């Protein structure tokens, strides 16, 4: 069996250069595994070791962010294998989630996908839900701890000052809190060992990733505040409820 962890190979935000026209660039900056992703790898490593499973890292990006160095960086952080999915252009949240979902399906025996809660997707934190939707797997956010007891996955999620323990049927997606683990420092031995671990680079098309259609703006309208109508949508039929919600949001000018 396999535990999958999604990670990004990014330029450190603190080293960004803001041009006069507002453009943000990282000229000559050395890219690294993101802070949130280091935590995710450490978390996933613990899950894999506890169940004696392999740990496969998946990173998605264009030629700049999905380079061979991205695989080496992840392998040095503790991955057993690395899969780099290279897109023609920098992917948005939905495109990256579709590509990672295809990568997870290609692995075949994954029972958990771990990502960082602060995954870089324009600050929306929608990558986890998009990935779970593409895989049709449950998603749990702000996970502080987790384990597998042989029949189900248990996880502790913390939000608004309260911790809750869940039992989840696998496979599942876990978005882990940055406070859940402290990544260990990477040493020279880890870097040397990474050179002997397997990695490969593929494209979304080779994986059969779903194509994300262009976004069409249906309209724009101001949103009234302080005028709650208290409408409740019946959730007995999830598909019907989702359709009703989209229709209502479109009618109100939210979508």
State the main characteristics.
255 residues, 7 helices, single chain, alpha/beta, 13 strands, 2 domains, Rossmann fold
Concise overview:
The protein is of the alpha/beta class.
Broad CATH class of the largest domain: Alpha Beta
Q: Using only CA atoms, what is the Rg?
A: 20 Å
Amount of helix: 25-40%
- At CATH's second level, what is the architecture of the largest domain? 3-Layer(aba) Sandwich
Would you kindly provide a written description of the structure presented here, covering whatever features stand out?
By secondary structure, the chain is an alpha/beta fold. Helix content is 29%, strand content 26%. The protein has 2 domains: 2-207, Rossmann fold; 217-255, no CATH class. Strands 11-10-9-12-8-1-6-7-13 form a 9-stranded mixed beta sheet, with helices on both faces. It has a two-stranded antiparallel sheet with strand order 2-5. A hairpin with a 2-residue loop joins strand 10 (153-159) and strand 11. Helix 2 (68-76) crosses helix 5 and helix 3 packs across helix 4. The radius of gyration is 20 Å and the shape is globular.
